[in-house]
Amino acid sequence: MTKLIVSNFQTLDGYYESADKTFHRFFDYFHEDYGANEAFDEYNTELLRDADALLLSGRTSFLGNKDYWASYPEAPDGTEIRREFAELMRTTEKYVVSDTITPEDLVPWRDTTRIVRGANLYTEIAALTARPGRHILVQLSRQLWNDLLVHDLVDELHLTIFPVIAGEGIPLFTGRPPVSLKLLSTRTWEGSGNILAVYQPILRAAAAD
To answer: Pairing between strand 156-161 and 4-10?
Structure first.
């Protein structure tokens, strides 16, 4: 069996992004000692190196990320770790969940990307995790993996807590999913205020009325 691993970040008070769908204001008060650290990039590159496939979702999110990472190798101020991540994004087998994306939208990743329609979602994901191999990685795609979580299709949650307080925004979790979390490991990085917590989610039976 192949593990389905979700990797996302959140603020200390549990937010995933601002109400305007950006992250920038989260870092208005980012501590100056941590401003140049690449811990989150390094960890997600580490996960992608060891993945057989990457699962993404949403037309707007996917196209924005595709355009960013496809052009990143030419960025004059790019970092080495992000250049490696961009190359892995290009070459890793990708599945994008969307009912509106077309094959033409996948260029220049068309040869390594497959579209999964919502009607076939759970069947497709179950088939992917049933095959032998290394893990399947889910990045971003908050709504998708929140849905997979309550369908017992997420094997591990890798949550990186950034040392910032958002105050408001979009929560990482949708409502209160009926899962228990077993802590598997934690990790920190020198020169970074990030804390990684790795959990095994366990779906709970619905409570009786």
So the answer is: parallel
CB 116 within 8 A of CB 147: no
Structure tokens at 156: 């591990």
What whole-number distance in Å separates Cα of residue 166 and Cα of residue 179? 25
Start-end of H helices in 53-180? 59-71, 80-91, 121-130, 142-150
Say what the pLDDT of residue 35 is.
Answer: 84
What are 121-156's pLDDT values in tens digits? Answer: 999 899 999 999 999 999 989 999 999 999 999 999
> At a CB cut-off of 8 Å and minimum separation 6, what does 74 contact?
none
**Helix, strand, coil shares of the chain as percentages rounded to 5?**
35, 30, 35
Assess whether the previous peptide bond of 171 is cis (omega < 30° from 0). Answer: no
Q: Report whether 187 contacts 37 (CB < 8 A).
A: no
Residue 68 structure tokens: 């960013």
pLDDT at 185: 98
Task: Judge whether 141 and 121 are in contact, CB under 8 Å.
Answer: no
| pTM reported for the whole predicted model | 0.93
